[in-house]
Write a structure and sequence with these properties.
This protein has about 400 residues and is of the alpha/beta class. It is about 40% helix and about 15% strand. About 55% of the residues are buried.
Length: about 400
């Protein structure tokens, strides 16, 4: 069972990879909620919808992309005249795909966004997605290192460097700023190991020391009874993470498409936060072949919500709930400063070149989304899965 889940989860991620290898639209969901057909538009209406290609930097067949599937399958995208097509990529070229018109939107991490803008790619952030620094670590519960501080001066403490398991070589640039902020020497204290599809098992079996991870993934692993503790990177570095980008050409020529996409996605974000059980049912209905317990499926949504809003009860959560989709000068300036100090970029980038909030509408009716979530028959979906 763990190997199956590991194979599914390894393809998760945040952010920052690309090179499109597949452009097929994923199968329509077998949605059992009260609004199951709104996202699967009937034939008469399909011709009137503008297809928007959304670029993911790994397989779409995971449970943590719920806000997008809510937007599509509950009809929020269709209400904006849009049909979302997921485009799967591998590597670090999603920004290039958006810049060249091969995709309309993507959701890379700040390191790739800033590197791409510095290189002159015509892209810009148009909607916030992950409100916190999502890059963290998973370690075995009985490991002697249970914090970032424990990794500092690892050779002196443990007689060797500690190994950090990555799924792709490009992931090193994602975790490096957080490690540096924690005082970890990325050359002397740790060794990055690209472990690919087997990285979860490698850490679980003790062959590698640390798993580079993030809440959505870590919560699913822990929900599947992997014996891991999660070390939260946001406690070390309070940046924001993945954000929605589009091209400058789209901004100039199709502003209403951008505005509609952002509004539909923000509704999906709120739906996921408001009712994690209904959110889990949406994703499980979209991908019914993923083997998972219901406990783990809901736990994934809790991880997704933590990424988008921060810790429950925190000031970050309160602020993000009030400003879904809006970027801040403070968050992006910290990203710029961090990427400069860690060598990811070489020069200051004006915030006006990085993001705009002009396409984020905060006036949509939240009560309508709440009603949709309350009416969603998640219990029928849950009944198809083992409880835990």
């Amino acid at each position: 069972m763990k190997k199956i889940i590991a194979l599914v989860l390894v393809l998760l991620l945040m952010l920052s990879m690309a090179a499109c290898t597949k452009t097929d639209t994923p199968p329509a969901s077998d949605n059992t909620g009260d609004k199951p057909s709104q996202g699967t538009n009937d034939t008469d209406n399909e011709k009137d919808l503008r297809t928007v290609k959304f670029c993911l930097t790994r397989t779409a067949e995971v449970l943590e992309d719920t806000p997008f599937w809510v937007a599509q399958n509950l009809g929020y995208a269709a209400e904006e005249g849009l049909d979302i097509e997921m485009v799967e990529t591998i590597g670090t070229t999603d920004c290039k795909m958006v810049a060249t018109g091969q995709a309309d939107f993507a959701v890379p991490g700040p390191s790739l966004i800033l590197q791409s803008i510095e290189e002159g790619l015509p892209i810009k952030v148009v909607c916030a997605y992950d409100a916190i620094n999502i890059w963290g670590l998973c370690v075995l519960k009985d490991a002697p290192f249970q914090s970032f501080e424990d990794i500092v001066d690892a050779p002196e403490k443990y007689g060797r460097k500690l190994t950090i398991a990555l799924g792709d070589p490009s992931w090193e640039s994602l975790v490096t700023p957080t490690l540096v902020a924690a005082g970890i020497d990325c050359k002397e204290d740790v060794e990055f190991v690209v472990a690919g599809d087997n990285r979860f098992v490698q850490v679980a079996e003790g062959n590698l020391d640390i798993l580079f991870s993030w809440p959505g993934e870590a919560y699913q692993l822990i929900g599947q009874n992997y014996d891991f503790n999660y070390i939260d990177g946001h406690e070390i570095l309070q940046t924001n993470s993945n954000s929605i980008i589009t091209s400058l050409d789209m901004i100039e020529n199709e502003p209403d498409v951008i505005r509609g996409f952002c509004r539909a996605l923000c509704k999906g974000i709120y739906f996921t936060k408001y009712n994690p059980e209904a959110a889990a049912a949406v994703s499980c209905s979209q991908w019914p072949n993923i083997e998972v317990t219901w406990k783990a499926a809901v736990y994934v949504q809790e991880g997704r919500n933590y990424q988008m809003f921060g810790k429950p009860g925190s000031e970050t959560e309160k602020e993000r709930l009030q400003n879904i989709g809006l970027c801040t000068d403070e968050g992006w300036q910290l990203n710029v400063d961090t990427m400069l100090s860690s060598g990811v970029i070489s020069k200051e980038i004006p915030l006006t070149d990085i993001y705009t909030n002009e396409f984020v509408d905060t006036t949509w009716d939240r009560s309508e989304v709440e009603a949709d979530a309350d009416a969603y028959d998640w219990q029928s979906v849950a009944a198809k899965y083992e409880a835990e």
